[in-house]
Design goal:
Length: 406
Protein backbone atom coordinates (compact mmCIF):
# COMPACT_ATOMS: atom_id res chain seq x y z
CA UNK A 1 0.00 0.00 0.00
CA UNK A 2 2.89 2.33 0.80
CA UNK A 3 4.53 1.76 -2.59
CA UNK A 4 1.24 2.34 -4.39
CA UNK A 5 0.77 5.64 -2.58
CA UNK A 6 4.29 6.70 -3.45
CA UNK A 7 3.78 5.85 -7.12
CA UNK A 8 0.43 7.68 -7.17
CA UNK A 9 2.01 10.75 -5.54
CA UNK A 10 4.89 10.81 -8.02
CA UNK A 11 2.49 10.48 -10.93
CA UNK A 12 0.35 13.28 -9.56
CA UNK A 13 3.33 15.57 -9.13
CA UNK A 14 4.61 14.80 -12.63
CA UNK A 15 1.18 15.47 -14.15
CA UNK A 16 0.88 18.72 -12.20
CA UNK A 17 4.32 19.85 -13.30
CA UNK A 18 3.47 19.02 -16.91
CA UNK A 19 0.17 20.89 -16.66
CA UNK A 20 1.85 23.91 -15.06
CA UNK A 21 4.47 23.89 -17.77
CA UNK A 22 1.75 23.90 -20.42
CA UNK A 23 -0.05 26.77 -18.72
CA UNK A 24 3.16 28.74 -18.37
CA UNK A 25 3.94 28.42 -22.10
CA UNK A 26 3.92 32.05 -23.32
CA UNK A 27 1.80 33.30 -26.17
CA UNK A 28 3.93 34.36 -29.13
CA UNK A 29 3.14 37.61 -30.92
CA UNK A 30 4.90 39.09 -33.93
CA UNK A 31 4.78 42.91 -33.97
CA UNK A 32 5.62 43.96 -37.53
CA UNK A 33 6.43 47.64 -38.01
CA UNK A 34 6.27 49.43 -41.35
CA UNK A 35 9.40 51.54 -41.42
CA UNK A 36 11.68 50.89 -38.47
CA UNK A 37 12.15 51.31 -34.76
CA UNK A 38 12.67 55.10 -34.82
CA UNK A 39 10.08 56.17 -37.39
CA UNK A 40 7.29 58.18 -35.79
CA UNK A 41 4.36 57.76 -35.37
CA UNK A 42 4.61 54.00 -36.01
CA UNK A 43 7.34 53.66 -33.41
CA UNK A 44 4.97 55.18 -30.83
CA UNK A 45 2.23 52.76 -31.89
CA UNK A 46 4.57 49.78 -31.46
CA UNK A 47 5.88 50.95 -28.10
CA UNK A 48 2.43 51.63 -26.68
CA UNK A 49 0.88 48.44 -28.07
CA UNK A 50 3.69 46.38 -26.55
CA UNK A 51 3.27 48.05 -23.14
CA UNK A 52 -0.53 47.81 -23.23
CA UNK A 53 -0.48 44.17 -24.33
CA UNK A 54 1.75 43.22 -21.41
CA UNK A 55 -0.43 45.25 -19.03
CA UNK A 56 -3.78 43.97 -20.24
CA UNK A 57 -2.98 40.31 -20.98
CA UNK A 58 -1.45 39.51 -17.57
CA UNK A 59 -0.19 36.15 -18.78
CA UNK A 60 3.20 35.18 -20.21
CA UNK A 61 3.59 36.71 -23.67
CA UNK A 62 6.65 36.68 -25.92
CA UNK A 63 6.62 39.64 -28.32
CA UNK A 64 8.89 39.56 -31.38
CA UNK A 65 9.64 42.88 -33.09
CA UNK A 66 10.44 43.15 -36.78
CA UNK A 67 10.59 46.12 -39.16
CA UNK A 68 9.74 46.25 -42.84
CA UNK A 69 12.58 48.52 -43.92
CA UNK A 70 11.72 47.88 -47.58
CA UNK A 71 8.70 50.19 -47.21
CA UNK A 72 11.14 53.04 -47.78
CA UNK A 73 12.04 51.80 -51.26
CA UNK A 74 10.22 52.50 -54.51
CA UNK A 75 10.27 48.95 -55.88
CA UNK A 76 8.92 47.09 -52.87
CA UNK A 77 8.10 43.67 -54.29
CA UNK A 78 11.61 43.03 -55.60
CA UNK A 79 13.11 43.73 -52.18
CA UNK A 80 10.72 41.65 -50.05
CA UNK A 81 12.02 38.18 -50.85
CA UNK A 82 14.92 38.10 -48.35
CA UNK A 83 12.70 39.41 -45.58
CA UNK A 84 10.11 36.71 -46.28
CA UNK A 85 12.86 34.08 -46.05
CA UNK A 86 14.08 35.60 -42.80
CA UNK A 87 10.64 35.47 -41.15
CA UNK A 88 10.00 31.94 -42.41
CA UNK A 89 13.30 30.73 -40.94
CA UNK A 90 12.82 32.63 -37.69
CA UNK A 91 9.45 31.07 -36.91
CA UNK A 92 9.88 27.68 -38.53
CA UNK A 93 10.12 26.02 -35.11
CA UNK A 94 8.02 28.50 -33.14
CA UNK A 95 4.29 28.72 -33.73
CA UNK A 96 2.90 32.23 -33.57
CA UNK A 97 -0.39 32.92 -31.80
CA UNK A 98 -0.92 36.37 -33.33
CA UNK A 99 0.62 38.75 -35.84
CA UNK A 100 0.14 42.51 -35.39
CA UNK A 101 0.94 44.87 -38.25
CA UNK A 102 1.62 48.55 -37.57
CA UNK A 103 1.08 50.81 -40.57
CA UNK A 104 -0.17 50.17 -44.09
CA UNK A 105 3.09 48.81 -45.62
CA UNK A 106 3.36 46.10 -42.95
CA UNK A 107 -0.30 45.15 -43.43
CA UNK A 108 0.08 44.95 -47.21
CA UNK A 109 3.27 42.90 -46.89
CA UNK A 110 1.79 40.34 -44.51
CA UNK A 111 -1.42 40.02 -46.50
CA UNK A 112 0.60 39.46 -49.66
CA UNK A 113 2.84 36.76 -48.15
CA UNK A 114 0.50 35.31 -45.57
CA UNK A 115 0.14 31.91 -47.20
CA UNK A 116 3.91 31.52 -47.34
CA UNK A 117 4.45 32.65 -43.77
CA UNK A 118 1.55 32.28 -41.33
CA UNK A 119 -1.55 30.98 -43.12
CA UNK A 120 -3.40 29.91 -39.97
CA UNK A 121 -2.23 32.64 -37.58
CA UNK A 122 -4.74 35.37 -36.60
CA UNK A 123 -3.77 38.85 -37.75
CA UNK A 124 -4.50 42.27 -36.29
CA UNK A 125 -4.05 45.31 -38.54
CA UNK A 126 -3.56 48.63 -36.74
CA UNK A 127 -1.79 51.96 -37.08
CA UNK A 128 -3.46 52.16 -40.47
CA UNK A 129 -6.01 54.54 -41.93
CA UNK A 130 -9.30 52.93 -42.89
CA UNK A 131 -8.70 53.91 -46.54
CA UNK A 132 -5.60 51.70 -46.63
CA UNK A 133 -7.39 48.57 -45.45
CA UNK A 134 -7.84 46.25 -48.43
CA UNK A 135 -11.21 44.80 -47.42
CA UNK A 136 -11.19 41.94 -49.97
CA UNK A 137 -8.05 40.56 -48.31
CA UNK A 138 -9.42 40.83 -44.76
CA UNK A 139 -10.52 37.33 -43.75
CA UNK A 140 -12.49 35.91 -40.84
CA UNK A 141 -9.13 35.33 -39.16
CA UNK A 142 -8.35 39.06 -39.18
CA UNK A 143 -9.32 42.06 -37.10
CA UNK A 144 -8.71 45.76 -37.76
CA UNK A 145 -8.19 48.75 -35.46
CA UNK A 146 -7.96 51.61 -37.94
CA UNK A 147 -7.80 55.38 -37.81
CA UNK A 148 -9.73 57.94 -39.80
CA UNK A 149 -7.62 60.93 -40.85
CA UNK A 150 -9.82 63.87 -41.81
CA UNK A 151 -7.53 65.93 -44.04
CA UNK A 152 -10.22 68.48 -44.83
CA UNK A 153 -10.73 68.86 -41.07
CA UNK A 154 -7.04 69.70 -40.68
CA UNK A 155 -7.34 72.48 -43.28
CA UNK A 156 -10.53 73.78 -41.64
CA UNK A 157 -8.67 73.94 -38.33
CA UNK A 158 -5.87 75.97 -39.92
CA UNK A 159 -8.32 78.43 -41.45
CA UNK A 160 -10.31 78.65 -38.24
CA UNK A 161 -7.27 79.50 -36.15
CA UNK A 162 -5.62 81.63 -38.85
CA UNK A 163 -8.49 83.00 -40.98
CA UNK A 164 -6.18 85.22 -43.08
CA UNK A 165 -4.19 82.24 -44.40
CA UNK A 166 -3.77 82.30 -48.19
CA UNK A 167 -0.95 79.77 -48.65
CA UNK A 168 -0.47 76.29 -47.14
CA UNK A 169 2.75 74.32 -47.61
CA UNK A 170 2.33 70.56 -47.27
CA UNK A 171 5.35 68.62 -46.01
CA UNK A 172 5.16 65.13 -47.50
CA UNK A 173 7.82 62.65 -48.61
CA UNK A 174 8.28 60.48 -51.68
CA UNK A 175 8.00 56.83 -50.56
CA UNK A 176 5.16 54.69 -52.01
CA UNK A 177 3.10 55.31 -48.88
CA UNK A 178 3.66 59.05 -49.11
CA UNK A 179 2.77 59.10 -52.80
CA UNK A 180 -0.54 57.50 -51.87
CA UNK A 181 -1.19 60.21 -49.29
CA UNK A 182 -0.22 62.92 -51.76
CA UNK A 183 -3.17 61.93 -53.90
CA UNK A 184 -5.46 61.72 -50.87
CA UNK A 185 -4.43 65.20 -49.77
CA UNK A 186 -4.87 66.69 -53.24
CA UNK A 187 -8.40 65.29 -53.44
CA UNK A 188 -9.35 66.36 -49.92
CA UNK A 189 -8.28 70.01 -50.33
CA UNK A 190 -10.14 70.64 -53.59
CA UNK A 191 -12.96 72.56 -51.83
CA UNK A 192 -10.40 75.04 -50.45
CA UNK A 193 -8.51 75.82 -53.67
CA UNK A 194 -10.49 78.97 -54.37
CA UNK A 195 -9.31 80.35 -51.04
CA UNK A 196 -5.84 78.89 -50.47
CA UNK A 197 -2.83 78.05 -52.64
CA UNK A 198 -1.37 74.64 -51.75
CA UNK A 199 2.33 73.89 -52.24
CA UNK A 200 3.69 70.34 -51.93
CA UNK A 201 7.21 69.37 -50.92
CA UNK A 202 7.18 65.77 -52.18
CA UNK A 203 9.70 66.48 -54.94
CA UNK A 204 12.22 68.23 -52.68
CA UNK A 205 15.19 66.87 -50.74
CA UNK A 206 15.05 67.75 -47.08
CA UNK A 207 17.61 70.58 -47.27
CA UNK A 208 15.42 72.36 -49.80
CA UNK A 209 12.39 71.81 -47.59
CA UNK A 210 14.24 73.63 -44.81
CA UNK A 211 14.95 76.54 -47.14
CA UNK A 212 11.37 76.72 -48.32
CA UNK A 213 9.76 76.76 -44.87
CA UNK A 214 12.16 79.52 -43.84
CA UNK A 215 11.04 81.82 -46.66
CA UNK A 216 7.31 81.28 -47.07
CA UNK A 217 5.20 84.29 -48.02
CA UNK A 218 3.19 86.13 -45.40
CA UNK A 219 -0.14 84.64 -44.32
CA UNK A 220 1.22 81.11 -44.76
CA UNK A 221 0.80 77.94 -42.75
CA UNK A 222 2.46 74.51 -42.88
CA UNK A 223 0.82 71.09 -42.68
CA UNK A 224 3.25 68.36 -41.65
CA UNK A 225 1.64 65.32 -43.25
CA UNK A 226 4.17 62.50 -43.61
CA UNK A 227 7.94 62.45 -44.09
CA UNK A 228 9.69 59.10 -44.06
CA UNK A 229 11.74 59.38 -47.26
CA UNK A 230 12.47 62.60 -49.15
CA UNK A 231 12.81 63.04 -52.92
CA UNK A 232 16.54 62.27 -52.72
CA UNK A 233 15.76 58.86 -51.22
CA UNK A 234 17.05 59.83 -47.77
CA UNK A 235 15.03 58.32 -44.89
CA UNK A 236 13.98 60.60 -42.05
CA UNK A 237 12.69 60.05 -38.55
CA UNK A 238 9.63 62.24 -38.58
CA UNK A 239 9.93 63.73 -35.11
CA UNK A 240 13.52 64.81 -35.80
CA UNK A 241 12.53 66.22 -39.18
CA UNK A 242 9.64 68.11 -37.60
CA UNK A 243 11.95 69.61 -34.98
CA UNK A 244 14.40 70.81 -37.63
CA UNK A 245 11.65 72.30 -39.77
CA UNK A 246 10.13 74.02 -36.76
CA UNK A 247 13.47 75.61 -35.87
CA UNK A 248 13.62 77.57 -39.16
CA UNK A 249 9.97 77.91 -40.18
CA UNK A 250 8.56 81.40 -40.58
CA UNK A 251 4.97 80.15 -40.41
CA UNK A 252 2.99 78.04 -37.91
CA UNK A 253 2.90 74.26 -38.35
CA UNK A 254 -0.04 71.86 -38.02
CA UNK A 255 -0.55 68.10 -38.20
CA UNK A 256 -3.06 65.41 -37.17
CA UNK A 257 -1.25 63.11 -34.67
CA UNK A 258 -1.00 64.02 -31.00
CA UNK A 259 2.52 62.53 -30.95
CA UNK A 260 3.69 65.77 -32.58
CA UNK A 261 2.10 68.08 -30.02
CA UNK A 262 4.96 69.59 -28.06
CA UNK A 263 7.40 69.13 -30.94
CA UNK A 264 6.48 72.13 -33.05
CA UNK A 265 2.85 71.97 -34.15
CA UNK A 266 0.25 74.51 -33.06
CA UNK A 267 -2.40 71.85 -32.52
CA UNK A 268 -6.04 71.28 -33.32
CA UNK A 269 -8.19 68.15 -33.54
CA UNK A 270 -5.74 65.24 -33.27
CA UNK A 271 -5.74 61.46 -33.37
CA UNK A 272 -4.65 60.00 -30.04
CA UNK A 273 -2.01 57.35 -30.53
CA UNK A 274 -2.64 56.10 -27.01
CA UNK A 275 -6.32 55.52 -27.75
CA UNK A 276 -5.43 53.52 -30.85
CA UNK A 277 -2.79 51.51 -28.99
CA UNK A 278 -5.09 50.74 -26.07
CA UNK A 279 -7.85 49.54 -28.36
CA UNK A 280 -5.43 47.51 -30.47
CA UNK A 281 -4.00 45.85 -27.36
CA UNK A 282 -7.51 45.14 -26.12
CA UNK A 283 -8.40 43.40 -29.39
CA UNK A 284 -5.12 41.46 -29.29
CA UNK A 285 -5.92 40.23 -25.77
CA UNK A 286 -9.37 39.04 -26.89
CA UNK A 287 -7.83 37.13 -29.79
CA UNK A 288 -5.17 35.55 -27.56
CA UNK A 289 -7.97 34.42 -25.25
CA UNK A 290 -9.57 32.57 -28.14
CA UNK A 291 -12.17 34.99 -29.51
CA UNK A 292 -12.53 34.77 -33.32
CA UNK A 293 -10.85 37.86 -34.84
CA UNK A 294 -13.58 38.34 -37.43
CA UNK A 295 -16.16 38.77 -34.67
CA UNK A 296 -14.32 41.76 -33.20
CA UNK A 297 -15.47 44.95 -34.91
CA UNK A 298 -13.89 48.27 -33.94
CA UNK A 299 -15.05 51.58 -35.47
CA UNK A 300 -12.25 53.70 -37.00
CA UNK A 301 -10.71 56.10 -34.50
CA UNK A 302 -10.96 59.71 -35.61
CA UNK A 303 -9.98 63.04 -34.15
CA UNK A 304 -10.45 63.59 -30.46
CA UNK A 305 -10.92 66.92 -28.73
CA UNK A 306 -8.77 69.81 -29.93
CA UNK A 307 -5.43 70.29 -28.18
CA UNK A 308 -3.03 73.20 -28.60
CA UNK A 309 0.50 74.09 -27.58
CA UNK A 310 0.44 77.34 -25.58
CA UNK A 311 4.01 78.14 -26.61
CA UNK A 312 3.12 78.02 -30.30
CA UNK A 313 0.03 80.15 -29.74
CA UNK A 314 2.26 82.80 -28.19
CA UNK A 315 4.94 82.46 -30.84
CA UNK A 316 2.49 83.16 -33.66
CA UNK A 317 0.25 85.59 -31.71
CA UNK A 318 -2.79 83.35 -31.98
CA UNK A 319 -5.56 84.42 -29.64
CA UNK A 320 -7.15 81.72 -27.52
CA UNK A 321 -10.53 83.17 -28.46
CA UNK A 322 -10.04 81.68 -31.96
CA UNK A 323 -9.72 78.14 -30.66
CA UNK A 324 -12.64 75.68 -30.88
CA UNK A 325 -14.85 75.47 -27.84
CA UNK A 326 -13.57 72.94 -25.31
CA UNK A 327 -9.99 73.02 -26.55
CA UNK A 328 -7.28 71.89 -24.16
CA UNK A 329 -4.12 73.98 -23.92
CA UNK A 330 -0.89 72.25 -22.97
CA UNK A 331 2.59 73.47 -22.02
CA UNK A 332 1.25 76.70 -20.58
CA UNK A 333 4.05 78.41 -18.69
CA UNK A 334 3.03 78.98 -15.07
CA UNK A 335 2.79 82.55 -13.79
CA UNK A 336 5.20 83.85 -11.18
CA UNK A 337 2.52 83.24 -8.54
CA UNK A 338 1.94 79.63 -9.75
CA UNK A 339 5.65 78.84 -9.73
CA UNK A 340 6.61 80.54 -6.48
CA UNK A 341 3.39 80.92 -4.49
CA UNK A 342 4.69 78.96 -1.49
CA UNK A 343 7.84 81.06 -1.37
CA UNK A 344 5.84 84.25 -1.86
CA UNK A 345 3.44 83.27 0.91
CA UNK A 346 6.34 82.46 3.25
CA UNK A 347 8.07 85.74 2.51
CA UNK A 348 4.78 87.61 2.95
CA UNK A 349 4.25 85.90 6.31
CA UNK A 350 7.75 86.81 7.47
CA UNK A 351 7.27 90.41 6.32
CA UNK A 352 3.89 90.56 8.08
CA UNK A 353 5.39 89.25 11.32
CA UNK A 354 8.29 91.69 11.10
CA UNK A 355 5.91 94.54 10.33
CA UNK A 356 3.76 93.61 13.34
CA UNK A 357 6.84 93.56 15.58
CA UNK A 358 8.02 96.91 14.28
CA UNK A 359 4.58 98.46 14.79
CA UNK A 360 4.44 96.96 18.28
CA UNK A 361 7.85 98.33 19.12
CA UNK A 362 6.87 101.71 17.70
CA UNK A 363 3.74 101.88 19.89
CA UNK A 364 5.68 100.65 22.90
CA UNK A 365 8.33 103.30 22.35
CA UNK A 366 5.71 106.03 21.92
CA UNK A 367 3.90 104.90 25.07
CA UNK A 368 7.19 104.82 26.96
CA UNK A 369 8.03 108.34 25.82
CA UNK A 370 4.56 109.52 26.85
CA UNK A 371 4.99 107.93 30.26
CA UNK A 372 8.42 109.52 30.63
CA UNK A 373 7.00 112.93 29.71
CA UNK A 374 4.20 112.56 32.25
CA UNK A 375 6.71 111.44 34.83
CA UNK A 376 8.96 114.42 34.16
CA UNK A 377 5.99 116.78 34.32
CA UNK A 378 4.88 115.29 37.63
CA UNK A 379 8.37 115.58 39.04
CA UNK A 380 8.61 119.20 37.94
CA UNK A 381 5.24 119.93 39.48
CA UNK A 382 6.26 118.28 42.76
CA UNK A 383 9.45 120.24 42.80
CA UNK A 384 7.51 123.48 42.30
CA UNK A 385 5.07 122.61 45.06
CA UNK A 386 7.91 121.66 47.34
CA UNK A 387 9.64 124.94 46.58
CA UNK A 388 6.49 126.92 47.32
CA UNK A 389 6.01 125.05 50.58
CA UNK A 390 9.63 125.25 51.55
CA UNK A 391 9.80 129.06 51.31
CA UNK A 392 7.22 129.80 54.08
CA UNK A 393 8.53 126.98 56.17
CA UNK A 394 12.01 128.32 55.86
CA UNK A 395 10.80 131.79 56.91
CA UNK A 396 8.97 130.32 59.89
CA UNK A 397 12.02 128.34 60.93
CA UNK A 398 14.22 131.40 60.55
CA UNK A 399 11.89 133.55 62.62
CA UNK A 400 11.60 130.85 65.27
CA UNK A 401 15.31 130.55 65.56
CA UNK A 402 15.64 134.28 65.85
CA UNK A 403 13.07 134.46 68.68
CA UNK A 404 14.72 131.63 70.58
CA UNK A 405 18.07 133.33 70.50
CA UNK A 406 16.54 136.57 71.78
Amino acid sequence: MTWRCAIWLCATLWFGATLNGAVAEPKRVLLLNSFGRDFSPWSEYSRDIRAELVRQFREPVDIFDASLATARFSDIKQEEGPFVDYLRALFAEHRLDLTVTVGAPAATFLQRHRQQLFPATPMLLTGIDQRRVALPTVSANDSVVATSIDIAGVVENVLGVLPDTTNIAVVVGNSPTEKYWMEQIRDAVQPFRNRVVFTYFNELPFDEMLERVASLPTQSAIIFALLSVDAAGVPHEQETALTRLHAVANAPMFSYFDAYLGHGIVGGPLISLRDVSEQAAGVAVRILHGEPPGNIKTPPIGFGSSAFDWRELRRWNISETRLPSGSEIFFREPTTWERFHWQIMLIAAVVAIQTSLIIGLFYERRNRRGAEAISRSAMAMSASIAHEINQPLAAIVTNANAGWRA
